[in-house]
Amino acid sequence: MTKQFLFLSDFDGTLSEKDFFHVIIDTYFQKDSEKLYADWDHKVMTDLEYLSRIFQSIGRDEAGIDEDILRIPFDPNAKKVIDHVQRLGGDFVVISAGTDYYIRRIFQHYGISHVRIFSNPGVYANRGIRLNVDPAGKYYSPLYGVDKEKIARDLMQDYQTVFYAGDSRPDLEAALLADTIFAKGKLQPLLDEKKKPYVAIRNFADVEDYLNRHKEVFTDGSR
């Protein structure tokens, strides 16, 4: 049976104001931060390889890493939007090229439940976070670990209306499949290049405002 609507969202930089790997670099690798950020910008390795190295190099026990995770500046309006979506009968799903290790802990900390998470599996190992990515997995991407477009394409088949919120290049193909796109940061010019309309947002307060002003999007199925 087709459900009414689905809200897909990236995590780092979208549901949070700062990527977790930025938190780690700025806290523990300040002397090397310029090079580390340059390597990220110039894509000297895949995002998956880069994040795997950063997360494995944290050098703290599990309790210490939990403290680091709680330094992630989680959008204070995100829970309101998630609750709003769920209250109206929609499903909220996170698609992230980071790791579920910190996303699940953030959601637990803020009392967020009933949210499916598609992300790179992570476990604590050797004073860091190890990403356990399966190259044979259904949604595997050699660049990001997870292929957001494949996930979105599969999930959206069961819904009349799909929203997508994202902020960067890995979100582009998945966002293009949605009926309404909420775009931050680098995703905006990428959508401009595709001549794809979107709702420009700074944070989830803007998402909440849009949903309150456009209640018809929850009833007008476009699939």
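[next item in queue]
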Amino acid sequence: MNTVRLDAARLDRLAPSLAELLADTVDGGASVGFLAPLDRAEAVAWWKERATAVAAGRLAVWVAYEESGRVLGTVSLALPDKPNSAHRAELVKLMVHRAARGRGLGRRLLAVAEEAAAARGVTLLHLDTETGSPAEHLYRSSGWIPVGAIPDYAADPAGVLRPTTIYYKRPGTGPVPPAPG
């Protein structure tokens, strides 16, 4: 399995494959901002729109794929464009195809994003995820610290409002016990 950072042109070319991954993620019940069923054309358009942010340096996207070229996972870092927040980044859209889950790919993608953040001088990462989701185990076991939960923050793919937990991590730190409270 290979992992590569995408430039805007390659992201645009891979948009249909990334759209399939996004649709699989939504169909599998993960709350990543879309309702099910996700229209494939809408998913392709959403990914193509990300190319502008990649080209502007506001978004870094990595994709994991098989030798056959099949996209199995992705992760992104949203990079702020304001001087007072240049030290931080948001981890967004960590997705692993259901057929590839349970093989450590999510953890590998998370590590790739964390290492890239540290290499560019980012000292604080943050993310949000659906409270009680399988992703929470990955984040907690990877050293991410929960800050708190916001009730009814986002609708899950079925349209049900669900709470979201906010996490942070300092790049370069390994798994640590959760903060008290």
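[queue empty]
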